[in-house]
Predict the structure of pyridoxal 5'-phosphate synthase.
Amino acid sequence: MSSAPDPADSVGGRKSAKAIFAPSGADGTLQAAQYTKGSLERSQLVSDPLEQFHTWFSHAAEDPSTPHPETVTLSTASLPSGRVSARMVYLKELDATGFVIYSNWGAHSGKSRDFSSGNGWAALTFWWEALERQVRVEGRMERLSDAESQVYYDVRARGSRIGAWASEQSKVLKDREELEQRVKDVERRFEGQDKIPVPSFWGGMRVVPEAMEFWQGRESRLHDRFRYTKDEAVEGGWRIERLSP
Ligand SMILES: Cc1cc2nc3c(=O)[nH]c(=O)nc-3n(C[C@H](O)[C@H](O)[C@H](O)COP(=O)(O)O)c2cc1C
């Protein structure tokens, strides 16, 4: 049975009651701010969720209060444990089939471990606060080929291209020196070479959606939510349903 936190619990090394409680309270109240900026109706949605995402992403990209709208949480899970891990990444491409992110797929990266455990499912969560909008994506991951990844790799700053070679992402390091030494070694290896091949352990992963949700914050937490679910029986291939907030 769960119970309320014990005020005698130690928080941050001190005996304290709840160290954080209703932190979004404004104006001396404990009440969270209301979402009042917009609303979402079924009639505003197009039949293809990727096209709908592109419209919402454009609104976020045009909004000066939404810097880096491409910032997204990628969640993956390992088999057979089911243990979930989530981390921020950047969306780098949207195409007709899905959302592409770039990362390290070596032995130590958590997302790589989850993918190679045989679990191809992933989720992406975007939050555009100034627009009071969330977009959720659930789908299967598919690795881009080296040739496809090379196209994006080539536009990265040289330091980032070197870094991709040098970093065994999420491996324990003895100290910062160890990383810097690896960077020097890679710089030496590619000295005088403009074109650097993309490492085989680094590249793009496309999340191909099977479900997507568009969420617009509303007053009193009575938000507007619409979920697209892949369904070949429906014209356009996607079923669209309003969800309770
Ligand atoms: C804003 C932000 C953007 C990030 N973008 C990426 C990214 O595009 N690709 C990436 O591999 N890691 C990115 N990272 C680092 C990841 O959050 C994470 O530390 C790294 O991918 C290792 O995670 P893993 O071991 O769970 O795979 C980003 C971190 C932040 C804070």
